[in-house]
Amino acid sequence: MQKTNLPSPPSDLADLGAVEAAALIRSKEVSALELVDATLARIERCAHLNAFVTVTADLAREAAREAERAVMRGDSLGPLHGVPYSVKDLTLTAGVRTTMGSAIFEHFVPQHDAIPVARARAAGAILIGKTNTPEFGARQMAQSPVAGRTLHPTHPQYTPGASSCGAAVAVASGQGPIALGTDGGGSIRIPASCCGIVGFKATLGAVANLQPADLFAANSYVGPMARNVADTRLLFNAIRGPHPLDPWGQGMHAGRSGPRELAGLRVAWLPTCGNRLDPEVAAVTEAAMRALQNQGAHVEPVGLDFTSLEPHFLVLLETLVASRVGPHLAQFGERMDPEVRAVALRGLQRNALELQEASFARTRCFQDLQRVLERFDLLASPTVSAPPLHIDVNPEGLIEIDGQAEATVRAAWYPYTYPMNLTGHPALSMPCGRSRIGLPIGLQLVGRWHDDDFLLSVAELLEPHLRA
């Protein structure tokens, strides 16, 4: 072991962050195999949380041994060399089954990595396993017909969020410092908020994603999840970049570089967008706005109506699920999540006019947000309108906010997130406080197109000033 100026590693290496772990491996103070073994031990101790569908222990150990040999040879090392990470079970991993949370694909083993997975591998990251997701990521419930229910890392009676539920729980509980999630309506940011971690959905096209069949209508993203902003940025930088087959990456340009201070930033504050806000979330997120103001930022409330977008989002969601599931209903319908099956059946009843109107609504939402961001550097909002909901809440039924019966989970709990999937703007959720019983509360930051680095820098500057 060599002596360096790096801080001593923690007693349990599974608690290392990605930036610190990569530095310690590079300096030979920690071996990749030691780190992988510690992470696998943590996964075993946290098995009751059910974050993983598949654990790739043997493959990870072999990759760690090769990573250690590379260090000893003095090879050129990637930025994530030897760092374990997980991938949500919607994203393709060569040689490792990818179930999509569905009996339809329960035994499917892809031949190729998805582009972000290939890039993480090239950067030296070691796949530790595939994390749980509801079926096709199509339901705001942390369970699937394949792997069952994933539990919140600290409050098992409350939801960890979805659909990147396994990824968020794994990161929050130290079952790997970083993870790849996917986000089709808030599926990275919602569980990040619920579990008290950082989740980032970059600008549409900033991370090439070739899995959607209709890339021109894409609203699904692959993105990083971590316990802090620096680790999030490290994974994002490893997977970012266009691809010739992804239309949204063509002509991708660099946005603004990150600010050096928060002073002078113009922040649009969106406490509600046509919904009711829980008082605890209001208090915590308003405190975050005061923290920004105390650092010299200008914060101004703005008004946007996102809740009226929900019917159009449902058209897009239901027709997408119908196109994916419809051919399999006869064979697998009885083994599917009943609500996902119902979503597919509703999608089969939609017509072309409804789909076109949904596209028009998407354009209007984009333009409304653009008008706000012409005057401000970024938009801030709660990530969700209330702390994590009870685990037994019906995600398709009406929910209560502040003791008042409201709308469905999508319209009442996360109206802030799914519009950003349609508009393509980068959006990040970061922890900013907790409820009276200790449930995490998240703050969402939204930037201009291509301002991914700017948004991450703002979050990193703000991070020390929040009561996470």
Features:
468 residues; alpha/beta; Amidase signature (AS) enzymes; 11-stranded mixed β-sheet; two-stranded antiparallel sheet
Secondary-structure map with pairings?
Layout lengths: L17 H9 L5 H14 L6 E4 L1 H17 L10 E5 L26 H8 L3 E6 L11 E2 L3 E2 L15 H8 L5 E6 L5 H7 L2 E4 L19 E6 L2 H11 L26 E4 L9 H16 L3 E4 L8 H16 L3 H4 L5 H12 L2 H24 L2 E5 L15 E4 L2 E5 H4 L5 H6 L3 E8 L5 E8 L4 H11 L6
Parallel strand pairs: 2-3, 2-6, 9-10, 9-11
Antiparallel strand pairs: 1-3, 4-5, 6-8, 7-8, 7-14, 11-15, 12-13, 14-15
Helix pairs in contact: 2-3, 5-6, 7-15, 9-11, 9-12
Describe what you observe in this structure.
- With 468 residues, this protein is of the alpha/beta class.
- The chain has 15 helices and 15 strands.
- The chain has helices at 18-26, 32-45, 57-73, 115-122, 165-172, 189-195, 229-239, 279-294, 310-325, 329-332, 338-349, 352-375, 409-412, 418-423, 452-462; strands at 52-55, 84-88, 126-131, 143-144, 148-149, 178-183, 198-201, 221-226, 266-269, 298-301, 378-382, 398-401, 404-408, 427-434, 440-447.
- Strands 1-3-2-6-8-7-14-15-11-9-10 form an eleven-stranded mixed sheet, with helices on both faces.
- Helix 8 (279-294) links the parallel strand 9 and strand 10 (298-301).
- It is globular and about 60 Å long.
